Amino acid sequence: MTVLYEPWPVTAAELAALLGQAGHAVRTAADPVGLAAILAENPGEPLVVFGPGAAPAEAAAFAAEQRLRGPATGVVLLRADAGADLLREALRAGIREVADPHDPVAVLEACGRSLELSQRLAYGGAPPDLSPGPYGGREAPGGQPGRIVTVLATKGGCGKTTVATNLAVALAAGGRHRVLLVDLDVEFGDVAIALQLTPERGLADAVAMADRLDETGLRSLLTPYRPGLDTLLAPVRPTDGEQVGGPLVGEVLRLARDMFDYVVVDTPPHFSDPALAALDVTDHFLVLAAPDVLTLKNTRIALETLELLGHPAERRIVTLNRSGSPVGLTPQDVERVLRVPPHAHIPSSADVPLSLNRGVPLTADDPAHPVSRAISEIASRYLHAVPAERSRRERGRRGLLRRVRG
């Protein structure tokens, strides 16, 4: 069912008729009390549409609350005058779609996209008529499939490995969660150095187990770091990385999802075949930027590439690393180049390279540090929710990207 919140009776009737013609069962509410009553009767409603007569602030407040109470409920806001400020506030609040009420096609398409996502969220990432799912019918220990978080940066020097290692430590929470950190930079991976680990076995050793990898085999390739956190390290020699292809990476990550609560993937600074395979099974994309115009430009291209490959914007966590650095760029400059506001900011600190040189992530050494708190907030705010929609269109994306490159 769709709930329509619209205080003007004539507009409410027109929108109800439009949605009803498209097969929606619609209930209307003219005020917040009526909306609350409908949702109290039907807490699992998948879609709430705020009509043009509703205040955008009401829609934003409702969406922000639903992100915690019922993340499978989608919110669509209908506004004819949706400027940049309104769209930015809608994004921050968790409103899924903003559409022009004078464009019936746009309204129906926005509602359809939101309902599809709600259906997938309600069934743990896949509608009930799509079987088997990407997990092969298995779930991670604890009853829920694990989540794959891929850290992306399309320019070296952004602090990608530092953020990935600290995020993995934050998610492990001292052993309360089972986390696997995968170094997918198969040519020049730095996770082993960043954590001062000895890579006796790693991703390259999975090549011999391709197409028959099981839990025992994968565990034999892991290097433990601390309670709750294991690592799958990159090949020591770049030539060994040439044998690690996309199909093997997909096999490894699907199996890891069944074994761990979280899988954090550190990627190379380019869309390699292994990286593209990881994107296909990723639940959350942490897209990393830094406050310089070249990196911001490359980050914008990365966001456009994710859009081209069909990965929804709601699965992306755009993060500005070294935020607050005195480099002559204002927050408005950053947003203008990225074309989206960052969801999260990690402050600049001289303690970060010091911790990297010691091989101890700040989140482990000093959890109260501002950098640690910023990364922990990303973990708690964006990654402790119901898994977002998982992509099922794995075939053809790598070919699409190659055609675009060519």
Account of the 3D structure:
It contains 17 helices and 13 strands. With 406 residues, it is α/β, with parallel strands linked by helices. It has two domains: 121 residues, Response regulator (Rossmann fold, 3-Layer(aba) Sandwich); 259 residues, P-loop containing nucleotide triphosphate hydrolases (Rossmann fold), CATH 3.40.50. It starts with a strand and ends with a helix.
CATH homologous superfamily (4th level) name of the largest domain: P-loop containing nucleotide triphosphate hydrolases
**Biggest sheet architecture:** 8 strands, mixed
Class of secondary structure makeup: alpha/beta
Mean pLDDT score:
81
User: What's the level 1 CATH class of the largest domain?
Assistant: Alpha Beta
Q: What's the count of strands?
A: 13
Kindly report the CATH topology of the largest domain: Rossmann fold
Q: Taking strands numbered 1, 2, ... along the chain, how are they ordered across the largest sheet?
A: 8-9-7-10-6-11-12-13
Helix content: 40-55%
Q: Describe the global form.
A: globular
Please state roughly what percent of the residues sit in beta strands, choosing from under 5%, 5-15%, 15-25%, 25-35%, 35-45% or over 45%: 15-25%
How far apart the termini lie comes to: 45 Å
* Helix/strand order, N-terminal first: EHEHEHEHEHEHEHHEEHHEHEHEHEHHHH
